[in-house]
Structures are given as structure tokens and as C-alpha cells.
Amino acid sequence: MPARPPPDAYLRTVLLCTLAGGLFTLVGVPLGWMIGAFIAAGWLAIRGAAAVPGPARPVALVVLGLGLGQTFTAPVLGAVLAALPAILAGGMLSIVAGILTAPLWRRIARSDARTAFFAAIPGGIMTMAVLAARAGASVSQVTVAQSLRMGVVVLVYPPLIALAAAGAARDEAFAAVLPPLAWGGLLALLAAGALVAAAGERLGLANAAMLAPCLLAMALSGTGLLPSSVPRWMIDAAQVAMGASLGARLGQEGLGGGPRRLALASVAASGALVVLTGLLGVALGALSSLPPVAVMLGMAPGGMPEMAVTAKALDLAVPLVLGFHLVRTVMCNLLVGALWRAVVALGLAK
Known about the structure:
Radius of gyration: 19 Å
CATH class: Mainly Alpha
Helix content: over 70%
Order of helices and strands: HHHHHHHHHHHHHHH
Number of helices: 15
Distance between the termini: 39 Å
Shape: globular
């Protein structure tokens, strides 16, 4: 069992991540709190000096789930449901884009087809690790590949989306009017969010720490029963925790000591996937008459929390972006294993 880090390591990590996040935000970097914390924690982790408390990520996910779910007021929920055909198409296109980049990942990493398949599809770190284990692929390689892809997307997408969204009009169909902050209501909401997150974990719900509180807030907001809004400073603090957790994991598992060929394969395939899903997102947005930049972000090969927070930071149709990622998560859980079996049956996994 690894030794527990000393208390000063936790304090150093928190202070450096908060400082870096604040500086990035101050100079106008989109998603600055998360990106700054991510870079700071990764730098510390490579040197073996990062220490992030285990509960930091799940607590941050509960806050983010509530903060994002609150945007689903009744009118916004209606607009998202009207966009469901495009959302389903986007989820399928994202999975297909991942499959198309698998040969590139395999060639550079010199891995087997099974591992490359699960390493390349943008389905979330935990989801793809579980599916890879069931299929007999290398879980460690899939985890590193998915983690590095998440890091690439977190660094690349916010400035890319900010540039694409410059001067674009806000889509009022996905804009929510939230209730005022009420401390009693907020405390009750946080407690309820923690309870449903724990229940979701026990039931085996994918990404339960975020998804269960998000569904709770969606239900309350959609029925007009939301007791309080979630303040921006709390969402910013959750961004720091998310960035620190991701940076520490990457530094330990990917950038710090993993095979360089595996890291290179993951970065190259991630770059190809960013370009491919970006182009598909713009095309799908134009065809569906939805905001193209929001659709592009919805199809981004990053994690649901990171991309939804990016949408919130840039005021880009948060419920629509979240809808894309929620549906893709469900589709990956239901379809990716079956797709791999189909590839094997057709003799394409050589």
C-alpha cells in the first residue's frame, strides 16, 4: 500500500492549483480555473509531489451536476427534447469517429486491435475501462489513452470554442432563468445531491456522482421546484478540484512514466478525433438548425463534466451540450461492446 502523502503536500497542491486557475482566469483563458489546476497538478504529479484528496472529484461532480442540471427549466427542456434526433445522430457519429481513429492509435502504439478499439472511442474513462475489461483488452492502456485524450481536449477545446463562438448570438431557447440564491435551499439541495449520488453508485449508474445530482436538479428545475440556484463561485471551486484530479492522474499514469509510444499514439489519435468530430459537429449543427458551435462542443471527445462546464463558462447552450454528452454516455454503455463483437464477427479485427 503506498504511503499517505504528508498534509503539506495536500496544501501545496491546493494552493498551486488555485493560484494557477486564478491566473489563467485573470488573463482570460476559457475554463481557466480547470485548465490552470490541471496543468499545476500535472506538473506536481510528474515530480511525485501532487496530493489530491480522494473525495475531491466526486464532491466536485455533485456540485457540477447540480449546477448544470439547474439550467433545465421547463422551456429549455422542451427545446432539448425537440433536438433529440440531432442529439442521437451526434452520439452515433462520435462513436463512429472514434472507430475511424482506432487504426491510427494502433499503428503508433503497436498494440492489438481490441485495445485500440476501446482506447479510441470517446466514451469516458471509467466507461471504456469497464467495457475494455469485459472484452479482454488492456485496461491499463485504455485508461491511459482515455485520460490523455481528456487532457488534450481540456487544453484544446475551450480556446477553440471561444474563438469559434466570438461574436455569435446567444441562443435564447436554451437560456434558463434561475431562482435566486437561498442558503437554506442550497444546503438542502447539496445534501439531496450527495444522497442521490451515493444511491446511484450503489445501483451501478455510470458517472453517478455527476449524473444522479444532475437528473435531480433537472427534475426540480423542470417542475419549478428548485429551492436555490448554485452560485458561480461554487462551480469555479469544483472546476479547480476537477482539474487537479485529472492533472494528478495524468501525471501519475500517463505523462509521468507511461511508455512514450502509448502517449504519442493517444495524443495523435486525440488530435485526429478533435478535427473529425469538430467538422461533423459544424455540419450537424447546420443541417439541424441548432447552434453549430454548441453542437460542436456537444460532440467534443471530452468528458461530460469538462465539456458542460466549458459550455457554461462560454454561455453556450449548456442544456443542449449536456444533452449530447448524456446521450453519448448511454449509447457507449449500450452499443460499444456490441459493436466490437460485430467487428470480430465480420473478421475486421486483424
